[in-house]
Design a protein that fits this description.
852 residues
Length: 852
């Protein structure tokens, strides 16, 4: 098609420096008549010759990746790739795979396994373009650069394979030699249901077969296969599905299929004249070969016990995904949460630590955090306000006392907490020994738990209790839902909102000076920050910006996971927020309405409601004061949830800083390959490896972190189930294409607008006045956009989630379309959402025209 695009039939060994050995081996098997999914390869020359210019060469690795993702294809290349896409996908009917093929990948000396990215389930041409760029960008990742350096691999570039995706019923890996002992008379098969990601990424329980060269099973281990991985309906999406209970222990492969696989594998071994590692899938009766490479001997057998927080779902578990953890988190952070919930208060009635309780609030699966319904029922739903008896009276008094004093005591502890954190921050970590760093880390974690984290779960429960009591008190009020939603955050101080007011003020300051405004509108965030540092003409803005970072720089750039940097580490992230806000160019006030007027309004409605219920003025007064008291407490505990996150970040940024210093020491000692790999160790493992004379250092942490990193990256790609109940996985919406959908309303009101998908802060600049924002979950730093949008649809959330609490401050309606909003809705689609009743309605073209 062009000089840079070749069909498998055109590729031979002489093309290995053009398309990589992965493509060459597939082409060779294709010529030998084996069943290979049809494919084309883009040569490394496409990136090297067309795009690898001096402007890219002079950038840091991360900046190279960013620039590659923004590249435009020349017309002839775009036409060529489009033709490939149309052919392989049969005009978009079937998905394809876009796979990296490093020039030195799968060679006899280096496998590069897992170093470069590949992408399953590509369903549109635009996503195929994006996947190609992502493959290229992965060549410049930090770990890829380090791998090439450690293995003395020159810069040779990367090819890309576009291939038909076969959605097999079963998949696996075949080794034509025992990969542990290298016994050539023993062959090994690992097999799972569904996509091959289940085996290759260690994502699912598998069957293991040890066989002889005649295909006879010598030993087998049939796994408990409760889950399988399947292609989603949108590009890049991989979903987790349940396997019927009667098939959990059913072997994936029959004896006949094992013999067929053996014959195919030995034929491939004869072709290459060396032991091979072969990825395969079976669809119907046909065996497809997906990839083959020389066998790499494993230093140690991978242990399932080393993979943590993945898919080990227990029987009788009932839980739902927490919105703030909708993205995968690393083992280190999850282990901290697990340790935390064992050392804090979980009951309203006593100060027993979490380790005292059988049921804990959090469950960890798919590198994410789920809320345990059993804990909810036993501790938060079983409150005694409508029960009689002396013991229930005692419990009522305990809860009321906690409701009245809990949040006040928490705020009183903040001054001491801040002083301790500042004191910890003053130390020069580079001059401390690793044992001193370990002690410092534990001290910071202890201060976090003792001062601001110990009653977090009590407060979460109190927010729900206050809300339920208020709902009950207003049960006969016609507009009770509107009243409750309106005043949840009306009177309490929400720090996140105040931080974003300051961000808005910074944006206005930039807008007021034409030079600063032009800088923000025409430069990248990194370039803007560089100019602010070097050029004194921006001094006023720079001083205000530095004050903002000094005050709020502990806030995180991503989810709460320690893996992600904070504003103080990457101030350009805050610059990006301001930049996107200026692009949106909204001149509205941060809050759309004056809360004082609405507070007065709800008081009048509550007073009128009290008069209607009671003829006695005394009873009217009691009812009125009781409702206002519950409104105030509900507001306090709703806001407290957000305010706690703000102060949690002060600990997280310091913990992250100490961990990175420990990671640097462990890297120097060759215990882990990279300092960031420390985030793939548990907190106990970090303590252990820091302790002098610890025998635990004999563990192969390089292997363990590589295994966990692979699991983490796999779970980053999948769509986790929203609800898990007794081994069954649920998605609350099954299919699209309807006129209306049932959702969950978490911020009241109605809105009509055009869908705008937002996945990161950089997408905020595309938002226009009146758009309906569609997000997986809502990050606190995105709050300024709430003054522009008319509504929000979220994959994950509830009445206590950040998106709901802050949206109610801005009077923006929000609905939760559990787990599927970002997949079933499309950019530019017109919708009406109802945050009061929880509905989404598709607006027809004719009706939408009147809102344009």
């Amino acid at each position: 098609m062009t000089d840079y695009i070749f069909h498998l039939g055109q590729i031979s060994l002489s093309n290995s420096r053009d398309v990589g050995m992965k493509a060459v081996r597939l082409a060779e098997l294709h010529r030998k008549g084996l069943r290979i999914p049809d494919a084309y390869a883009l040569t490394a020359g496409l990136l090297n010759d067309v795009y690898w210019t001096d402007s890219l060469k002079n950038l840091q690795a991360q900046k190279i990746q960013d620039q590659i993702l923004q590249l435009d294809f020349p017309e002839n290349i775009r036409d060529g790739i489009r033709n490939v896409w149309e052919e392989l996908s049969s005009g978009g009917k079937y998905p394809i795979i876009v796979r990296s093929s490093g020039i030195d990948e799968d060679s006899d000396n280096t496998s590069c396994a897992g170093i470069y990215e590949s992408f399953l389930n590509i369903r549109t041409y635009s996503d195929a373009e994006l996947a190609v760029k992502k493959c290229w960008a992965s060549y410049f990742s930090d770990h890829a650069i380090k791998y090439r350096k450690d293995n003395e691999i020159n810069f040779n570039g990367i090819g890309v394979i576009l291939q038909v995706m076969v959605e097999g019923e079963s998949s696996g890996v075949f080794f034509t030699v025992n990969p542990i002992s290298l016994n050539k008379e023993e062959l090994a098969i690992e097999a799972c249901k569904g996509l091959n990601i289940g085996v290759v990424d260690g994502a699912a329980a598998t069957d293991y077969f040890l066989i002889n060269r005649r295909g006879e099973v010598q030993e087998d281990r049939i796994g408990k296969k409760t889950l399988k991985y399947t292609a989603g309906k949108r590009s890049f999406d991989i979903e987790v599905d349940t396997i019927s209970k009667n098939q959990w222990y059913e072997p994936v492969l029959t004896k006949q299929k094992i013999k067929e696989l053996t014959n195919t594998a030995l034929e491939i071994e004869r072709i290459y004249e060396m032991p091979c590692d072969i990825e395969w899938t079976i669809k119907g009766e046909d065996i497809y070969i997906l990839q083959t490479r020389p066998v790499s001997r494993y230093a140690k057998e991978e242990k399932a016990s080393d993979i943590l927080y993945d898919d080990n779902i227990e029987d009788h578990l009932e839980c739902s995904l927490l919105d703030r953890f909708s993205e995968a988190a690393t083992v280190c952070y999850l282990s901290l949460l697990q340790c935390w919930q064992s050392n804090v208060y979980l009951s309203f009635y006593n100060k027993h630590k979490g380790s005292f309780f059988k049921e804990k609030p959090l469950v960890f699966l798919f590198n994410r955090v789920y809320w345990n319904f059993k804990f909810q029922r036993e501790n938060y739903d079983n409150v005694p306000f409508k029960k009689k008896g002396l013991m229930n009276l005692y419990k009522k008094l305990k809860i009321i006392r906690l409701m009245l004093l809990g949040y006040k005591n928490w705020y009183r502890r903040l001054n001491k907490y801040d002083r301790l954190i500042i004191n910890f921050s003053d130390f020069n970590l580079t001059k401390m020994s690793i044992s001193e760093l370990r002690l410092k880390l534990q001290n910071v974690i202890d201060v976090f738990c003792n001062y601001i984290g110990r009653d977090h779960y009590q407060f979460l429960g109190l927010a729900q209790v206050c809300y339920n009591l208020l709902d009950s008190e207003l049960s006969d009020m016609p507009e009770r839902k509107k009243i409750i939603d309106l005043v949840k955050s009306a009177e309490a101080k929400n720090i996140t909102v105040n931080v974003n007011k300051e961000l808005f003020e910074l944006a206005e300051l930039a807008h007021s000076d034409s030079g600063t405004l032009q800088l923000f509108l025409h430069k990248s965030a990194d370039q803007i920050y560089g100019e602010l540092v070097l050029n004194s003409i921006y001094g006023l803005f720079k001083d205000k910006f530095d004050s903002f970072i000094q005050k709020h720089g502990h806030r995180g750039t991503g989810c709460d996971d320690l893996y992600y940097p904070h504003w103080v580490e990457e101030p350009s992230y805050v610059i990006e927020i301001i930049k996107q806000y200026l692009i949106i160019n909204s001149k509205e006030n941060v809050l759309k309405k004056d809360n004082a007027e609405e507070n007065s309004n709800y008081r009048e409605k509550v007073l009128e409601y009290s008069k209607q219920l009671n003829k006695s003025k005394f009873k009217q007064y009691i009812k009125y004061r009781k409702v206002l008291w519950l409104i105030r407490l509900t507001a306090e505990y709703m806001a407290l949830r957000e305010n706690q996150r703000y102060y949690f970040d002060k600990s997280w940024v310091l913990i992250r800083k100490i961990m990175l210093e420990i990671g640097e020491r462990l890297k120097t000692k060759h215990i882990i390959p990279d300092k960031n790999d420390i985030f793939h160790l548990t907190i106990d493992e970090i303590y252990s490896v820091c302790d002098m004379g610890s025998n635990d250092c004999e563990k192969d942490y390089k292997r363990i972190t590589a295994l966990r990193k692979k699991t983490y990256e796999k779970n980053m790609k999948i769509t986790p189930p929203y609800l898990i109940k007794s081994m069954d996985l649920y998605r609350l919406q099954k299919s699209g294409g309807k006129k209306s959908y049932k959702a969950v309303g978490i911020s009241p009101g109605k809105a009509i607008g055009k869908v705008r998908m937002v996945g990161s802060v950089k997408d905020l600049g595309n938002v226009e006045q009146g758009d309906i924002l569609v997000v997986s979950s809502f990050h606190p730093s995105w709050t300024p956009v709430l003054s522009v949008v008319s509504g929000i649809i979220m994959n994950y959330g509830n009445i206590l989630s950040h998106g709901a609490v802050v949206a109610r401050e801005y009077k923006v309606p929000v609905v939760v379309f559990n787990d599927v909003a970002t997949k079933m809705l499309t950019e530019g689609q017109w919708l009406e959402i109802d945050g009061t009743n929880g509905r989404i309605r598709v607006v027809e073209t004719g009706e939408a025209a009147q809102y344009v």
